Amino acid sequence: MTQTEQPQRGLRLVFWGLLLAFFDVRLATVDILPDFLGYIILARAFAQLRAVHAGFRRAEWMAIPLIVLSTASLVEWPEMPPELLGAKRLLAFADSALDLAMIWMLCDAIGGLARAAGLELLAASAATRRLLYLASVGLGWMLAVAAQALIRDPGDAGLGSMAVAIPAAAFGIVVLVLMLL
């Protein structure tokens, strides 16, 4: 394998791993594209890319615990016992924080590779994507807290959560478009 084939192969695996890890396709309550498969592919890809940039090693350290954490989301239970809601929220927060750290380190590594190759525009783009992802995750956390504050009654018609969900969806779409540019 040549020196340029190694990063290309690893980066292709990163693409497929991210695709599996971040897109949820559910049949009823079961995730038919399990996130843990995406994290396994990502951990493998980052292991292949370790020698290219230290950021990939750090991203690998985040992907490994995400393999375990993501198994908790294989099945969505429609009715969760109230005593388990706190644990579910804690797992979701840990998953989100590790995802954020992994993407941050991935963008850092891609930016480092781009700078080393003299591709300053790509390096700047990686830094921008990193900040956009940070902003979207941060907003998601704030909206989750706001939704909890608005939903005081379990029998609520969903108006409080809709007041949060609509702007969140709009912001998410804007961030996605900006990340793809």
Protein described:
The chain is 76% helix and 2% strand. With 181 residues, the chain is mostly helical. Helix 1 (5-22) runs antiparallel to helix 2 and helix 2 runs antiparallel to helix 3 (54-70). The chain is globular, with a radius of gyration of 18 Å. The chain starts with a helix and ends with a helix. The mean pLDDT is 81.
Could you provide a short overview of the structure?
The chain is built from six helices and two strands; from the N terminus they run αββααααα.
Oligomerization state: single chain
Average pLDDT score? 81
* Share of helical residues: over 70%
Note the main sheet: 2 strands, antiparallel
Strand order of the largest sheet: 1-2
Give the overall form.
globular
DSSP strand content: under 5%
Any idea what the radius of gyration is? 18 Å
- Given helix and strand content, the structural type is mainly alpha
| Count of extended strands | 2
Termini Cα gap: 32 Å
**H/E series, N to C?**
HEEHHHHH
Unreliable stretches (pLDDT < 50, length at least 5) are none
Count of discrete alpha- or pi-helical segments spanning 4 or more residues: 6
What does the secondary structure layout of this molecule look like, with pairings?
Elements: H1 5-22, E1 26-27, E2 30-31, H2 35-49, H3 54-70, H4 82-116, H5 120-150, H6 159-180
Antiparallel strand pairs: 1-2
Task: Identify the notable features of this structure and list them briefly.
181 residues; mainly alpha; two-stranded antiparallel sheet; 76% helix; globular
